[in-house]
Amino acid sequence: MRSDRGVRSVQLGVHDVMADQGSIVVKIGGSTLGEGDSTIDDVVELWSRGMRPVVVHGGGKTISEWVSRQGVRSQFVRGLRVTDSATLEVAVAVLTGLVNSNLVAEITRAGGPAVSVSGVSEGMFSAVIQDPELGYVGRIEKTNPLPVQVIVDSGRIPVVGPAALNLEATSLEDQILNINADTAAGHLARALKAESMVFQTDVEGVLDMRGRVIPQMTKRQCVDLINSGVAGGGMIPKLEACIESLGGTKSAHIIDGRVKGALVKCVEGEPIGTRIV
Which class for 232: exposed (0-12), middle (13-18), buried (19 or more C-beta within 10 A)? Predict the structure, then answer.
């Protein structure tokens, strides 16, 4: 169990944010949060150093568990969850409610002033149906970073639950779309012109056809890896998000979030995982 030092730290007041310090968008998922990992502590450590972490989270495992309770089997196409109306309700409730609130609580207890924010807040993400085959899954058309920027500028840590306003909504039932958390992180990092974007994953990094970690890649190499079929499943949206983020971000990283201190090491410039430039 984490200590109560977080409550004490927050009560001392929010420290001044260094004006010249860029944001660091950190995407985390359930697969990298558990006993022994240091993801939450690493985020708070970065904040305590005057850096500006922005957390975007997934929750695929939890969504699958809740959907399964309804007798529905989760299906995926090209690494993206097929989302019917029933799955959409669960996804929105889990991502913007249960998972988001738990992460905010964890970060707060660890010493960071975390603030919950949904992807639909002030139209942070606006989207259209990406592919009828995927159901209510959105393709992001517009990104408004203001809700996150305001939180960051106040010296706090935004925790973003991925969801999007449906630009083509016809009723109350379809006004919100499910969006992949990796995709959301990439668009947000670009819109914020973040210093860097880091994916905390459950693999060592991007692997080549022989299963070896690729230490550094270009956008072109990412595309080639996807087109060749070497990268598949959940790695595809991560690589695509890295490509998207580099429209405004200096570098993107895919690292093993199960390794203690991995996030801090990455930000400090240690050669860990895969760096994409």
Answer: exposed
Give the span between the Cα atoms of 4 and 119, in whole angstroms: 29
**CA atoms of 155 and 13, how far apart (whole Å):** 10
Pairing of strands 196-201, 251-256: parallel
Q: What does residue 148 show for φ and ψ, rounded to 5 degrees? A: -75, -40
11 token code pair: 């009560």
The count of other CB atoms within 10 Å of the CB of residue 64 is: 19
Run of H or E including 165 = strand 164-166
CA dist., res. 98 & res. 194, Å (int): 27
pTM assigned to the model: 0.88
Mean pLDDT (10-residue bins), the chain, 277 residues: 42 37 86 66 96 92 83 78 86 88 94 96 95 91 97 97 93 88 96 96 92 95 94 91 94 93 94 95
